[in-house]
Each structure stands twice: as structure tokens, then as C-alpha cells.
Amino acid sequence: MISEKSREKFSNIILSCLPKSSKQLLFENNIKLPQIILSKTPTFNYVSLYKFLEAKIINNITNVVFKDYSKKRNLLEQEIYKLFVSQCKGIKELEWQTSQPLPSFPGALTCFSRLYSLQVDLSHVNSNNLYEMAHICKDLGELNICGFSQDIRGLTFLINEQRNLKSITLDAKKELCQELCKVLARKGHTISNLSLVGSFGFISHSFLTSLVNLKKLKVCYCFVKYEEIEEFQKYLANSIFPELQSLEIYYNLLCLKEFAKLIEKTEGNISNISALSFLNFNTSAEHTGIFLKAISNHCPKIKNLNTHIGPEDLKYVKSLLMNCRNLISLNLDSLRENNNNIGDELLDILTKFSPRCLTNIMISGDWKYSIDYFENYFESYRERKSLQFMINCLNGNKITPIHIEVVRKYYEEGIIISSNLIIE
């Protein structure tokens, strides 16, 4: 954690690097810089070292001059950005969260021509600035877009100009963006990492079928209308991602059946799956077994799995443990259906069939666990690597002081190395 004093010292150094013309402009507009920076100029050009330009860096510097909001902040921000753009050569990463026309500043071609990673907040950056940036940088590998609610021509032009775009994150809402869908389809052969975040209906998902080389897929949607869900299910079912390695699904599990089919069409290289939600438990319960079965049969290399299970899914958990011998981390979360008998059966399956490398376990559910099954499970780890064991119960009285004593015993023996039941 950087102290306030260190942050202020750093900001003063950067402000000291401002050219005389900028200092004069600020002075003429009654913007008073800290007196300490006026005495001497740094002998070393610290600004030129930057390869990653973050918005918070600029914000921290302006906060040294303006403790409260002021309309003059914009002018100070402009001169600081001009300083960085003129002095930095070959910036690799840019966090663009300002209305400042960065690609129009002197030195922009040298500064941004090698840009690889770009994060753009379209609530600040306008279409014209995106057009200008597209003429400078054509080798973006990573593009993270947020804050847009409609098609923006500058954005589609920027994406279209990239020669080898590999990763794209879209965080949007409101209106349907047809042009964005088309340009993503044209880049389908290069995109290997896709994250879809925000409201569901902002884009047609027909471009999904073009992503033939996709390796990582993250979907974090809040579904609103049923027809939107149907549209997504349709294109998801028709998509084939043979090289998929990582799948993350959050907030809504209404498409588990389609994701299961997607897994079945991969070449078995998936190593990470996370499918968790705090909503729509009942509507997704019927497909959790199908999802687990697909993982068991088609993901022999999986190392990390976070998912929900229902009372009828234990047979798939057993199959999963038997087939997926590379599992390191497993998080099983109850669908919150009352079934007090599942706890012991789940622990018994974990005891008998867990691969030796499975050393990170989290179980969440309103289930009972007998002391004997608790002890048997931990005993099975005597000849393995140490265990990280987390257990969360919706009803706290399912884990008693005796359960906690058992966990502490194995913790003191070094069999358990960490647990949320242990208070050190």
C-alpha cells in the first residue's frame, strides 16, 4: 500500500518534469503547482520509463494540485497527458479513461505505435479519438471495452484495423450493436480470448460461430428477456470451440445444457471451468448433472472446477473424480435444496475417489456431516500433499464444535494447512 506521502512525492517529481510552456500555461490560468516543484528540474527523465499508462496515475497527480473538484482539472490533466505522450516511446499498455484526445497530442505516433493492450471507457472516449488511434496502432493483442450502449463507428473501425487481435472484453448495455457483431465475426480467426460482461441484449451473438480458435470464454450476463436467452442459446449450440481451455460462467446458469454441448465438442484441453451463480437456482438444477457429465467425459486435463451440484448429481461427482485425475482445486456449491443426507455421501465419494493432486476443496451447502465421515476424509490425506479445506453451511448449526475440533486436530498434525474453520 503506497502511503499518501510517497504518492505526493512521486506526483511532485512528475509535475517537475512538465516543460516550461506547460507550467506557464497553468500559471496563466491561475493553477498553482506545489512550490517544491518550481525550485529544480529532475536530472533524470522518469516519465520516459513508462510502458504502462494508467488513468489512476494521472488522477493521483491532479489530486495533489486539486484536493477538491475544479473545472481547471481538465487543463492540468491535458498537460500531464501531453507530457507522457511526448516523452514515452513504445507504450505497451494504455488505460484510456479520459476525454483527452491522446492520439492528437505531439509524439502520439511514437508513443502508441507499439501498443499491445488497450482499455477504453467509452463514457469518456469519443468516436473521433478512436478513429485517430486506429490509424496509429494496428497490432493490438488485447482490447477491453466498457461504457458503451450503442454502435460506435470509431470502435468498429479500430477493431477492424487490428491485424492480430487475440483478446477482447466487452462490457456493455442497452441498444443492440449490429456493426460490432459483424466486425467481431471478421476477426474470428484471430480471437482466442473472449469476455462478455454486462446486460445481455447489447449484441447479436451470431459472431460466436466464427471464433474457431477460441481458447478462453467468459460469460457474465444478466438475462432480461426470454427471447434474448433463446438467441444466445441458439448460437452457443451452433458454435464449436475445439481448442477451448478455460470456461467461466457467472450470474446465470440458464444455458448450462448448451455449455455442456460446447464442452463435448472440444478436443479435451480444458483446464479451468467455473460455473457459479447466485440466481436462478431452481431453473438450472435440471442441467447441472448434464454439465458435470460433459466435464467428466471430455475434460481429462481439467485442474480447477467451480460448479453447483444437486442431490441427484453425486454419481457425476464420482465419475468426475475417477476420470479427471489432474484435478487440483474443486468447489462444489449446493443448489440450496434441502437434503440432509448428501453430506456424508459426498465426503465418502471424495475419500474414496479423489485424485492425489486434489488438495484444495471447498464445499458449500445445507448438509449434515457425521464426525466419522469427517475423520475418514482427512485420514485419506495422510499420504498426500497437505489439504486446503473450506466448508460453508447455510445453516451454521450443521458444523458443530466437534467438527471444528476434528479439523484443528488434523491442522495441528499438518494434514490440513488451511481451513476457514480454524481461527489462529
Automatic annotation (TrEMBL):
* Name this polypeptide is given: RNI-like protein
What lineage is on file?
Eukaryota, Fungi, Fungi incertae sedis, Mucoromycota, Glomeromycotina
From which organism does this entry originate? Answer: Rhizophagus irregularis
